[in-house]
Amino acid sequence: MHILIIGAAGMIGRKLTSALLKSGQVGGKAISKFTLTDVVEPAKIDFNGDVATVVSDVSLPGEATKLIASRPDLIFHLAAIVSGEAEADFDKGYRINMDGMRFLLEAIRQEGLKAPYLPRLVFTSSIAVFGAPFPEAIGDEFFNTPLTSYGTQKAICELLLNDYSRKGFVDGVGIRLPTITIRPGKPNAAASGFFSNILREPLVGQEAVLPVSKDVRHWFASPRAAIGFLTHAAELDTTKLGWRRTLSVPGLSTTVGEEIEALRRVAGDKAVNLIKDVPDPKIISMVAGWPRNFDAKRAISLGFKAEQSFDEIIRIHIEDELGGKIGG
C-alpha cells in the first residue's frame, strides 16, 4: 500500500505518520511506500520501504496532479489554514481550504480517466460547518449553516467529497474533527487555540490567557483520538456511509470551567492560578456561533471512539508530550 499524507508536517500529520509506521499496515495491507508532503518539508522518517518527502502546495494549479501521478492507494488530506487565519484572510482561506480540495479531487478523477483508479481519500473537515442556533446536541440530521468563512470552506469540501464519491471517482470519507485539545507545541492562529493554551502552558509552569467566559461550552477530543478517527476511517467499509460521506465523530462536551477544574484535579491549584482572565470581544463573538455538543450516533455505530472525561484528555497530553511529568 502506498500512502500519501498531505499536510504531513503539521501536528496531526506527524502523529498520523508515526501511528502508521508503528502499525505497518492498514486494513490488513502492508504499507510499502509513504509520500509525505506539505508547504514545508516534512521530517524524515525511518522506514524500510520507499519514502518521498515533497514540498508542495496543493492549492496551486498542477501540484495535486504531480502528487497523484504515482497513484497512491490511500490519501489523507489534512492540509488547511485554521479558523482565525481563514476568517482574517478571505482570499487565502478559499484558495487553500477550498481550491486545494477541488484540485486534489480533480487530479484523482483525471488519473482515473487514464486507467481504473479509486483511492480511499480521508479528509479532515470541522465542526465549524455548523452554525447557531443549535439544539441541545447536534444530531446526524442537523443542517450545515456555517457562520465563518472557514466553516463555509469546509462545508463546500464536504459536498465535493460526496459528489466525487457518488460519481465513482474517489472513495471518500470525511471526518468532522472536534477541537483537538491539548495541542502540543506553540500556539497557532486558530481562534480555538485558547482551549489548549489554558491547559498546556500551566502544565509546564507558564501563564496562559483566557479570552472567554468559563461558561463557554465546546466539543473536544485529544490528538490521540484524532489519529484513531483517521486510521479507522482509512479502514472503514464505506458502503455503510451511502452518499453522506462525512461523519461527526464522537467527542466530549465540556465548559471552560470544567476544563479548568479537570486541570485542578490533575495538576493542582498552582497550575490553575497561572490562568489569567483577559476578555477578547472578537473571540467571544466567534465562540458564540460555535457548536457545543453532538449526538454522534452514526459514527459511534461505525466504531469511532473518543475520551470519556477531560481528566483523561489532560493525562494523555502529560503521557504523550511531557514524559509523564508536569511542572515548570
Explain this structure to me?
With 328 residues, this protein is an alpha/beta fold. Helix content is 40%, strand content 18%. The protein contains 12 helices and 14 strands. The strands form 4 sheets. Strands 5-4-1-6-7-8-12 form a 7-stranded parallel β-sheet, with helices on both faces. A 3-stranded mixed β-sheet has the order 9-11-13. It has a two-stranded antiparallel ribbon with strand order 2-3. β2 and β3 form a beta hairpin. α1 crosses α7 and α4 (90-114) packs parallel to α5. The radius of gyration is 19 Å and the shape is globular. The mean pLDDT is 95.
Largest sheet: 7 strands, parallel
Low-confidence parts lasting 5 or more residues at pLDDT below 50? none
Cα gyration radius (Å): 19 Å
Strand content: 15-25%
Number of helices, counting only DSSP H or I runs of 4 residues or more:
12
**Number of E-type strands:** 14
Q: In order across it, which strands form the biggest sheet? A: 5-4-1-6-7-8-12
Structural class: alpha/beta
The overall pLDDT average reads 95
Helicity, as a percent range: 25-40%
Could you tell me how far the N terminus lies from the C terminus, measured between alpha carbons in angstroms? 43 Å
Looking at the structure, what is the overall shape? globular
- Element-by-element helix/strand order: EHEEEEHEHHEHEEHEEHEEHHEHHH
